[in-house]
């Protein structure tokens, strides 16, 4: 039996942070960072069942193309991904009354729909990128028992060498997207590895008032190549989404709207429109 301090429930029986009950989830779940972005899905849905908010966690369930979809905001960063995945997995795979794991496991499909910065000049703003891998520089997945994907091991070794050379005391982890979900993408969809960084300013090479320890860090990431694979973009959640999905037996794919290109130093003139187009495109892909 799972203890009360390990799996916390609200007085109404809902899960602690999300405030959801088991009957309020479905197989296809979209994750967005910005709580206000959840509302952007409403005009696209054929029907809305409920919407609610607990702190930064906004949840909305509706129908699209005859399929139920749950949209949940995670807030920014991998720490909240730990909360959202653990609680959604509990709703799917734990009997909350008995606090025992269900004998039959349920696998969920997670789709990140969010914004990102392009690392390479050939990826223009207002385009879309699907993440084949998430490369995490945070420590979240180091707290979980997991097997590193053998095909990802060389990527991790290469990234760790750069971190050591730049005197950044961190160890990376690498997790792949679900192959079956990637197959749902149209051939025209750009794909590449995604770097997940534990901050928006220093870790992403920005200098405001405090000097950056590794001013050339993004250049080194841009130059990184392993077996023909390169890092296409960076953001702050994908690696944790892929890592948590893998250890829990779920599937995940991250779809990124590119609103900035760091090599060209350009920014989208209409980021909201780009995100809306990705929402429409993403919903079509998910329900195809």
How would you explain this protein's 3D organization?
The protein is an alpha/beta fold and 288 residues long. It has one domain: Nucleoside phosphorylase domain (Rossmann fold), CATH 3.40.50. It has 6 helices and 14 strands. Strands 7-12-10-8-13 form a 5-stranded mixed barrel. Strands 5-6 form a two-stranded antiparallel ribbon. α1 (78-93) runs parallel beside α5. The longest helix has 16 residues, at 78-93.
Instruction: Give the structural class.
Output: alpha/beta
| CATH class category name | Alpha Beta
Q: State the major sheet.
A: 5 strands, mixed, barrel
Taken from the alpha-carbon principal axes, the silhouette is globular
* Strand line-up of the largest beta sheet: 7-12-10-8-13
State the share of residues found in helices, binned by percent: 10-25%
Task: Provide a brief overview of the structure.
By secondary structure, this protein is α/β, with parallel strands linked by helices.
Please give the structural blueprint.
Layout: E1 28-32, E2 47-54, E3 57-64, E4 67-73, H1 78-93, E5 94-95, E6 100-101, E7 109-118, E8 128-136, H2 153-165, E9 173-176, H3 179-182, E10 190-196, H4 217-223, E11 225-226, E12 229-235, H5 238-248, E13 251-261, E14 266-267, H6 271-286
Parallel strand pairs: 1-4, 1-7, 7-13, 8-10, 10-12
Antiparallel strand pairs: 2-3, 3-4, 5-6, 7-12, 8-9, 8-13, 11-12, 13-14
Helix pairs in contact: 1-5
């Amino acid at each position: 039996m799972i203890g009360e301090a390990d799996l916390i429930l609200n007085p109404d029986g809902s899960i602690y942070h999300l405030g959801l009950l088991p009957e309020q989830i479905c197989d296809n779940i979209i994750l967005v960072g910005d709580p206000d972005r959840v509302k952007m899905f409403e005009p696209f849905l054929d029907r809305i069942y409920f919407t609610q908010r607990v702190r930064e966690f906004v949840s909305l369930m509706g129908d699209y193309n005859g399929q139920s979809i749950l949209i949940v905001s995670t807030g920014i960063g991998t720490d909240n991904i730990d909360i959202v995945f653990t609680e959604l997995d509990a709703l799917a795979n734990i009997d909350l009354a008995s606090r025992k794991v269900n004998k039959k496991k349920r696998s969920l499909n997670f789709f990140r729909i969010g914004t990102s910065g392009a690392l390479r000049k050939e990826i223009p703003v207002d385009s879309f990128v699907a993440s084949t891998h998430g490369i995490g520089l945070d420590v979240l997945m180091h707290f979980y028992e997991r097997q590193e994907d053998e095909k990802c091991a060389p990527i991790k070794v290469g990234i760790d060498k750069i971190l050591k050379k730049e005197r950044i005391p961190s160890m990376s982890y690498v997790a792949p997207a679900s192959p079956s979900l990637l197959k749902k993408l149209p051939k025209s969809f750009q794909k590449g590895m995604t770097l997940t960084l534990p901050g928006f300013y220093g870790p992403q090479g920005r200098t405001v008032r405090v000097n950056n320890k590794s001013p050339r860090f993004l250049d080194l990431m841009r130059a990184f190549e392993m077996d023909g694979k390169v890092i296409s973009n960076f953001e702050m959640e994908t690696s944790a989404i892929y890592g948590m999905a893998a250890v829990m037996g779920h599937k995940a794919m991250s779809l990124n709207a590119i609103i900035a290109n760091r090599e060209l130093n350009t920014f989208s003139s209409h980021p909201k429109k780009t995100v809306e187009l990705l929402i429409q495109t993403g919903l079509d892909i998910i329900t195809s």
